[in-house]
Every structure is written in structure tokens, then in C-alpha cells.
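B., you asked whether I could sanity-check this one before it goes into the benchmark set. Here's the sequence:
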Amino acid sequence: MTSNAATPVQPQYTYNATTKMFQLVHFTTPGCNNDFPNNPTAYAKLVQAWSQNVNGFTNQAITGNPWNALNSAQQTGYYNPLNTPIPAGSGAVDVAWIAFPNRLVQYLGQNQSPANPYGLSMDMLYQLADTGQLGKYQIPTVRCPQADWSGFSKQQGIEPYGPYGPRGWLDEYCEFSVVRNSAGKITRVDFTCENPEYFQTLWRVDPQTCADVFTAALNMGAPQNQWVKVTMADLTLLDPKTGAKVIDPQTGLPAYNPLNKWNSGTATVRSGAQASFSGGAMHLTATPNTLQTELGLGAGATVQRLAGDTDPQALICCGQYGQNYRNSDPHIGQSINLAVGAGFNISLADPPGLYIQMPSFAQYTLPADPKLPKGAKASDCWQIVRGFEKIIDPITNTPFPGSFILHAALQIPQAWIDAGVSFTIGDIMIAGEAIKWGSQVQATLEVALFGRPIPPVAATPKQICVGAPNPVVQAQPLQIMFQNLWNAYYGTTINTPAGVPMVLASNSSIIPPTLRTGAANVPLALTYAAPSGTTPIPQAQWPRVIFTLPNGQADNSITTTVIGFTPSVTYAVPGNTYPSASQLLNLHVSVAANAPAGVRGVVIVPFGQTFSPSITPAPAFLVVASSTTA
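And here's what the prediction gave me:
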């Protein structure tokens, strides 16, 4: 479990020579990256927390939605590599897609099917992809079986283009931020595919290291007069009413703000006084760009359907996973569905994630500068900031079929500057056009995931399309966090380029809070989808909340009291594209001193119902830790 910053961490497997099976010991940090190269104790702590979180995401994905959907549960074509042996020689397969947001092309571009009313040129789409000035563009609310524009002229059946965040429209799991000089020319573009859950986990382990990671990444290869010094204070969540630091009860330290000054928007300011510097792209911020959601999409796509499995759009409509018309989700879904249909189970290969691939530089042209070093080529400007171009797969002892790049920057190499080269990124051409927009570069690269197919334990039965029970009787747990964190995240309004405000809670993470044994009356906030929707519920009819053991039984060592109910809180539950109304329960939770450590599920029992095995617990909604554990 040791490495330096320039060496990939080796994923840890045990191998049974008799059965010729590998068993994953723990999930590896994204891209096999090590942010504690000189502190193996801290790295081990990070790995334990990270693996626990990803294990929870995986179990949530396999569980699916048995509460208020039909044919959307027990998605067992997806396996958890922590408890599933992997046969030796089971190679990984790559699923790749163009990083440019295809929904911009589909809804606003020319020559689309079905046709949209805008017909914008590609140059205009590049501009919109860089600025997010999408407020005047309305798109259909009905997208199945295809986008329905029939009500557009009457302004019916349409909604503002989303997602709405500072980079929300960059929804292909690749976001960027652009540095320009005083003449407006691009000098650097940062690209990231790092998931927000990792940075939340890293921050909870060591916030100063998290700040140092920001500093190192944003400064790599940049001129010294553009260097930044990122502080913990820069990344800290503030109370929206008082401006005070919000303390995370889990750590006793300040909480993390995912939309901080160094990770918000597509414009990076590195001119003028250093105090005015801002911007950067360190991790994904579009609300659907989360690892938890990607794992859910992968599991949902394993379900074999009786209709639509030969067409990506029909399949995503039938399975109701992901978002229509992306380059990513429909393609990922069909690729996984076809693999399972061919007689395999599948999971993301360790380290699980979505990774930037090397751009195609075939259409890049450098200016004819006599100072260019001999043999200089456009690809020299592509600098891997975090992650690796190649990683060896321990299962096959051969390289994975693609790159594990987490963060890259396109900028003029220092060796060229030292040689006297005077041009910048904005002078380089792609397909005969000067680079005016970061999205022009984005259109030349792909993002990829790596799936690992293995023989199935049992055949995956075909199901009809996902539907809704009538009536809905069960409550669906959505997200849980400490109450003071919810108050700050939900109370913080974010202004967006699209002109549609959003709340910071949409950029929080589906990571369960950790309570110590012996903790008493800890305030937690739990959002959920109530069977009654937004209808107010009198206090006497508030639901019960029961935390569960791994076997699904009620955990009697945890006592939960519902002390408040809000019939409607509007936010994009992390992973969702658009905000919607959810319900909120305010809880007081106590943990007995002798409670066993470990991860708990949760069941919400509506008034008039009883807790029973017929109600599936939502996995990974609470962690119990020993009060004696550091």
C-alpha cells in the first residue's frame, strides 16, 4: 500500500492457487493515485474510508429501487468485487465516449433527430459549453421514447436547460476550466474527471492535505507568477447566515465546500493581483457527475429487458437509468447490458471510476514558430496532472486497455517557453480553427470506464420496463447527513450561468455519517420520497426510522426519534440532473455503548405499517465506529 506520487498504487488482491481466483481486499483510491506518498498511516486510513464508501455505493447500486419503482431492484447482474471471486485472466474491457456534452448538440445543434427549434452552429455550441449561458434555451420535459418538442411554440412541456450548476451542463463526467491572458487568448485548460466523493473523503481524513493537493494540481506546469496557495479556509463550508465555519461533527474540523473558489465554473482567473485569483477544475461538480450515480447506472443497465435492448435510447427509457442523449449514459448502459446479455456478470474494475483518455491530436496544428524545439508536437502540451497514462491490471498482468487520467492540463511546456516560443494555446489550431474555447479541446478526447466481465453465478432473467406501483406504499430513503451540515448546504444558494438558482445541498455527497458508540441524541437530517409526496403529515403520523444490521434485521442498539418533518425540500439529490421535491425528517439518533462497529442500512416505516422483511433496507446509511478507535 505504498507508493510515491509518481507511481501507481498496486490494487490489493488475494489469490487462491487451487481455485485460480482473485479476491479484492479493498477498493483502491481513484486512478491508483496516492495523496499520502510519505505517510503510509494516513494513506491506510484514507483507503479504509474510501473502500467503505465505495462498498456502500456498490451495494446501493445492486439493491436498486424496490420502494417506489417496479422492475428496478436486485440488479444482480452487477457484482461486488469485495465479495465475488474473479477468475484469473478475466480482463477488463473499456467503454469510452466523447467528453463534449452531447445534450447540447441534441437539443440545440443542427441536423438532429428529432429536430430542435434552435439549429445552432458548432462554434456557438462551443461558446455555450464554455460559458453555460443557457438561460434562454428551453428543452422538452418528455424525453421518451424521444424528445417531444410539440409543445415548444406554446411554451408547454418544456423546462430550462439543466443541470444548473456552475459547470452543470458539462455532464459527460469531464469538466474543465480555462485560463486566458490579458488579450483573451487561452493559455491553459484544466480537465478533471475526479469524483466529488473522493475529495469529501480525503478532506475528512486530512483537510490540510486536501488543500495541498489543490495547490499542487493547479500550479503544475503554470508560470510562477500564476501560482496559487490554497488554504483550508478556501475550501471550508460557511454558515450562510453568519459566515462562520461549519464544523463537521464526525471530525470536529471544518466541513468541506465542494463549490469552493478553486473548483467552481469554467473561468480561471490568474491575472492581476494574486488576491484576485480564483477558479479551477479539481473535481466534478455537475450534479449527475458522481461515482455513486455511475455505479447505480451500471447496475441498472445489467437488467435484461424484454424490449429495447438493441437501441441505446429505447433501453435507457425502459430501464430509467441515467440521462437521455448524453454521449455517456446511453452508451454505457447498452454496452453493459449487451455484456450481461452475452452471459456475463460485470462490475467496474478496480480502481472504480471514470477516466480521461489521451486526446486525438491528429487535427492539431502548431504555429510555425522557429523557436520550437526540434521534434515538438502538439501532444507535448498535454500534461497529466493526476493519475496515469498506463496501469498494469493485476488480474492479467497486462496494461488496462486505456488511461487512468484524473486531471490533465493543456498548456505550453516550460521547455518551449525556455526556448523562446512566444505563442500560446489559443494560437494552436484544431481542424483549421484556432482554439478559442476549452470545449474544442474537450471534443477531441474521450472519457472511459473499465468493466470486468466474469461468468455469472446464475442467469439474469429478463424483465419488463421499469414502472411505478399504484399506489406507492413504501418510503424511499435518499440521503442522510448531520443536521448542521444539511442546514448549511441547503441554506446556501448558488447563482448559476443558466440563471436558475440551486442550493449547495445538490453538490453534497451520498456518504453516510459516522457515529461513535455511546453517542446520544445526535441530530441527523434524512431526505426521502414519502408515499404521500408533498402532502403535510401530522406529527402523530410521522414515520418511524429503523437502522438495520447487515442481515436486514432491526438494530436494537440504535435508537432513533423523529423530531421534525418537512413536506417539501427542493434540491437535486446528488446524482440527479434536475431538482425535485423530497421530504425531510429531522432525527435524534443514539448508539448504545456496546453496539457493534460497522455499516448500517435504514428502513423508513410509514404510519400504519410495521417493520418487516418485506421492506428492503437502503444500504449504507449510517456507520457505527467504536468510541475507542482513533
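One thing to flag: The chain has a mean pLDDT of 96. Otherwise nothing jumped out at me.
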